[in-house]
Amino acid sequence: MTMSRVGMRKDRRRRWGRVWLTGLMALVMAAMCMIADPAAARRPAAAAPPTDLALATGYNESGQVGDGTTTERTVPVEVALPEGVTLTEVSGGGNHSLAVTSDGRVLAWGQNLSGQLGDGTNIQRTTPVYVNLPAGVTVTHVSAGWSDSLAVTSDGRVLAWGGNLHGQLGDGTTTPRSTPVFVDLPAGVSVTQVAAAEYHSLAVASDGRGLAWGWNQYGELGDGTTTERHTPVFVLLPAGAAITQVDTYEQTSLAVTSDGRGLAWGRNQYGQVGDGTLTDRHTPVYVLLPTGTTITQIAAGYYHSLAVTSDGRELSWGRNLQGQLGDGTTTNRSTPGEVPLPAGVTVVDTDAGQFHSLALTSDGRVLSWGYNIFGQLGDGTTTQRTTPVFMILPEGEVATAISAGAYHSLLLAEPARSATALTAEPTEAAPGQEVSLTANVTCNAGAPTGTVTFLDGDTVIGTAELDATGTATLTTTSLEPGQRQIRARYEGNGRCPPSTSEPVTVTITEEPEPPGPCGWDKLKVEKTADRTAVRVGEHVTYRVRVTNTCDTVFRDASFTDDLSGVLDDAQLVGSPHASTGHVTYVPPRLHWVGDLEPGATAEITYTFVARKPGKLHNHVTWHCRAPETDKVRWDCTITTTTKVIGTKHH
């Protein structure tokens, strides 16, 4: 029950062993096989963003909720974290819980009879305490089992502590440990993820191999035997298979392969292996996924299994007496079937407890289904659910990680937030020239929808609706001269809160005075290239003609040719030539200026030699008057393109 987090390969620690209840409840639990062990840990690939908000709901007899009480909770309540601590992962075990802090320490709380809290005592804790890690060691990932705990260190080693009846700590003994010891890994092996069950443990090696140790009555170690192992052995994976995540609960082990298939081995009494049989497997077999389906996450519960598909669906198989498969029935399945999710919902992570199941949605909500006698579904009731319902999260919070303990559930959460970024094109324009404003909105609570308001200072320019990509665009010609401070304000949509961009400066330049009595519209510019296609080594000559159509002298007529798109594939030959006026060339721009008599034309020519295949693009710009708005535009443009094809023909 480690935190099921997006991308984290869960390490399950499920072996939820007995929940010691009293009176009638004890009898009921026994009848329901509550002696089950907890499970496994999840996947530690990408830790959740650090947050100071951990939540828990459900069974709390041993303080595993972490709120300082032993009161059961039917909706998530806040875990009482130490002051100033932020977390990146949580993991729920049988009756205890673990967490990784953003600085690589480990917190633990709940039951401690076997030393599973790792604080050197056997004292139950109702609020988190620090695990006594070896000096200088930091941790990236944890997995809580039934009465034991595992952790991966930042240098790829594995720590273990707690119960060790069947060698599940992997240190070569069966001695319980109340502080962490190093697992005796094979020489040269480093580990990326672990999963703790009741009496056995799994690990993923950095090279994609699987390791297992502990109890092996049903072949759950996957080494082809039923021999108990007190130090890790390699799982006998199918030829060519590499794994990225493991999970385990009870005596069944699961894995995801690097190509998105599912593997399973061990106990198969209810079809939890997912191969269409009820036959125990001593080595991994492929799960019979629906045709064309690949998976990204896998989770093992007490005799049931879950998976997330690459397109965000949820699959389930195995035991279903309490509705833990979420398909609306209580019928067992020996092959995966699809869980009916609410319309439009996709999931990114999943986890399984003793008899309940969790899924993290792409918009930061949590779905839960199955057994709920202790409120572990977090929907405010103790009603069993055979299809998914939404957990009741604190208002304004979104979940970033989930983990199912035996009968409790853990979450990491953070405030819902959006971010708005703004761009403008162009950032320098003339009065009346079109300026395109584009806002991009992101949100951690799902796809942002709704309206973006564009502002010039405090003045509203206009509004635009976000599209499916979170983008809104507004084109305006109304900006006044000067340096305008433009912002985009996303108005929010209920789940995604409002946000405002940083200002973007758009400079609207005053209309330039024409150089003399002639208006800008009296300057006529033409441009040609003598070749539309050349071979490497051949020449192309550009000719620009500037004509004064005014009846008086046009002073300081000018144009600029941006040759950036030519110089990548060609080189200037000689010097540019102007029939009148003055031409300068400072790469990548050529500039001409001159006085023109009434009706006079200046002709400017320049030649380039093609050096390699490509396209030669250049852009002549000059001042002109746009007839549709009767306003001066600074960048009237003529673009020419010449294609360079292959080598020079001989």
UniProtKB/TrEMBL annotation:
Keywords: Repeat. InterPro entries: Big_3_5, DUF11_rpt, DUF7927, Ig-like_fold, RCC1-like_dom, RCC1/BLIP-II, Reg_chr_condens, Signaling_Regulatory_Domain. Residues 55-411 form the RCC1-like domain. Residues 523-628 form the DUF7927 domain. Residues 422-509 form the Bacterial Ig-like domain. GO terms for biological process: carbohydrate metabolic process. NCBIfam families: B_ant_repeat (TIGR01451). This is DUF11 domain-containing protein. It comes from Actinomadura decatromicini.
